[in-house]
């Protein structure tokens, strides 16, 4: 797996590059601003980019805007955003109309190289990976009834883990449910959210988008 790192803090960027290299990930470029990120993606065609939300020159949403552009212009490239703080609106802004191949993690997570490389692999495979703390913040918001009111508490638990990018097998293990029970909950979520019968991967993405935007 080839990764481009975009982070303005040189020490953090170099440390992250070393962690990933030691874990067997190929870091094809390390850059410090959004303009250099876009050039690196065009030049090296990475599998995934790791991008800080706030980058030079304004340290506002330059990284997020670059990530959104990458999603439009290079749809095969996965995007994993990093942030110091829980900024749920940035996670939602990154998702757009399709949450496949997108991740959003707090920077504290990257000290755990296994968690980071797992997130990169899942994003590369087309999954959605949302930091559990961001999911908790979203769960706590006042919510509109986007169909979610029809879900049972256990179905909401399953959907929250789906929003973190967890597979049915992982959900089964985390909630101590049988795989068949998880499959039943997932089917019920699709039905209660009125998601028409397309392939299950696509409906899974739509369910997560409904959850995050409601």
From TrEMBL:
Pfam families: GerE (PF00196), Response_reg (PF00072). SUPFAM superfamilies: C-terminal effector domain of the bipartite response regulators, CheY-like. It comes from the Bacteria. PROSITE patterns: HTH_LUXR_1, HTH_LUXR_2, RESPONSE_REGULATORY. Keywords: DNA-binding, Phosphoprotein, Transcription, Transcription regulation. InterPro entries: CheY-like_superfamily, NreC/VraR/RcsB-like_REC, Sig_transdc_resp-reg_C-effctor, Sig_transdc_resp-reg_receiver, Tscrpt_reg_LuxR_C, WalR-like. Residues 2-122 form the Response regulatory domain. Residues 144-214 form the HTH luxR-type domain. The modification 4-aspartylphosphate is found at residue 52. PANTHER family: TRANSCRIPTIONAL REGULATORY PROTEIN NARL-RELATED, TWO-COMPONENT RESPONSE REGULATOR. This is Response regulator.
């Amino acid at each position: 797996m080839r990764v481009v790192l975009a982070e303005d803090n040189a020490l953090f960027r170099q440390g992250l590059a070393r962690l990933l290299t030691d874990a067997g990930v190929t870091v094809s470029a390390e850059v410090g601003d959004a303009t250099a990120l876009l050039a690196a993606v065009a030049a090296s065609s990475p599998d995934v980019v790791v991008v800080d939300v706030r980058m030079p020159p304004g340290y506002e949403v330059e990284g997020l805007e670059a990530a959104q552009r990458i999603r439009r212009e290079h749809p095969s490239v996965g995007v994993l955003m990093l942030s110091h703080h829980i900024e749920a609106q940035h996670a939602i802004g990154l998702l757009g109309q399709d949450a496949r191949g997108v991740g959003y993690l707090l920077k504290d997570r990257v000290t755990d190289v296994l968690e980071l490389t797992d997130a990169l692999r899942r994003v590369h495979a087309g999954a959605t990976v949302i930091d559990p703390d961001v999911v908790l913040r979203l769960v706590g918001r006042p919510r509109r009834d986007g169909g979610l009111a029809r879900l049972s508490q256990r179905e909401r638990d399953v959907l929250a883990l789906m929003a973190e990018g967890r597979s049915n097998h992982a959900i089964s293990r985390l909630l101590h449910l049988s795989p068949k029970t998880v499959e039943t909950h997932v089917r019920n979520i699709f039905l209660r959210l009125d998601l028409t019968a397309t392939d299950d991967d696509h409906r899974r993405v739509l369910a997560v988008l409904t959850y995050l935007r409601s």
